[in-house]
Design goal:
Helices cover about 5% and strands about 40% of the residues. With about 280 residues, it is mainly beta. The strands form six sheets. It has a seven-stranded mixed sheet, with no helix packed on it. A six-stranded mixed sheet has the order 14-16-18-22-23-20, with no helix packed on it. A four-stranded mixed sheet has the order 15-17-19-21, with no helix packed on it. The longest helix has 16 residues.
Length: about 280
């Protein structure tokens, strides 16, 4: 009878010893004799029997079709710094060498010589490619400036500047002057009242329409503006009476602007950074 109890105890102990207690983040998930690893959400398990160590070794990995690698996402670290002092720019990428160009690649390019006309770029000795403006055909002609990083885009044939410079419609010349098809100033409308103040950051053109049966008014500027900034004011008189506008804070004029009933007037100022100076005025429009 004693031997029977001993054998029964061994059977129970052996059955319990085969159970595997599994926890996830410290919380019990179950106790079974078999642990099954199910791939999911891009995670893959590769398991092999290791009889020598009396165990099964499992190595997790991931499905690159669902979870791309660093190289698949970036292909390289995309900072390109050319310091060869020529228009034939060259650079080496800092993380790993580029093996080939492909359409859609983008890089941050910094050069040490202005591209005043035509220029080229060779990354990691993959090959020399022309640099063009965003239209893909026009040479940079001053749009690529030394020490000023710019995004460039490879379209499969050339590198295009992505800094906003286009072909003939808009460009910056070698002096830094901006050439554009048109520049339209924002217009600010100011309500007429006895004392008015222009917000010179709201636009370069300000329009004031007088109110019938109202009196004359004083007009000033909130600040003295920026050196070289221009300011235009349009005053539209009502059909009841002409209003006289006296200029106050920050506006230096040749005197009050006398309005004409039912007519408009304009006045032009320019700033030197300390005050607005009258340039011209037109009345009776």
């Amino acid at each position: 009878m004693r031997l029977k109890h001993i054998l029964l105890s061994l059977v129970v102990f052996a059955a319990r010893a085969q159970n595997l207690n599994v926890q996830v983040n410290g919380q019990a998930a179950g106790a079974r004799s078999t642990l099954n690893l199910i791939p999911g959400n891009g995670i893959i398990h590769a398991c092999v029997d290791n009889p020598r160590q009396q165990r099964v070794d499992c190595t997790p990995s991931f499905n690159t079709a669902l979870i791309p690698t660093h190289d698949a996402v970036h292909a390289n670290e995309n900072y390109c710094d050319s310091s060869n002092r020529t228009f034939a720019y060259t650079c080496r990428l800092p993380n790993k060498a580029l093996s080939s160009y492909s359409a859609g690649m983008t890089f941050v390019l910094t050069v040490d010589v202005d591209c005043t006309a035509a220029c080229t770029l060779n990354i990691d000795n993959v090959g020399l490619k022309n640099i063009k403006k965003i239209d893909g055909t026009t040479d940079p002609s001053g749009a690529l400036v030394s020490g000023q990083p710019q995004w460039i885009f490879y379209d499969g044939i050339v590198f295009r500047l992505m800094g906003g410079a286009t072909g003939a419609a808009s460009a910056v010349d070698s002096r830094g002057d901006v050439m554009a098809r048109r520049v339209i100033s924002a217009m600010d409308h100011l309500s007429y009242q006895p004392s008015m103040t222009l917000d010179v950051t709201a636009g370069d053109v300000h329009k004031i329409r007088t109110i019938p049966n109202a009196g004359n008014a004083t007009l000033g500027a909130a600040t003295a503006g920026l050196p070289g900034q221009h300011l235009w004011i349009i005053i539209a008189n009502d059909n009841t009476s002409g209003k006289t506008i006296t200029f106050g804070a920050n506006l230096l004029s040749t005197g009050p602007l006398a309005g004409t009933t039912g007519r408009s007037a304009t006045i032009h100022f320019v700033s030197d950074g300390t005050a607005w100076y009258e340039v011209s005025r037109t009345v009776g429009l």
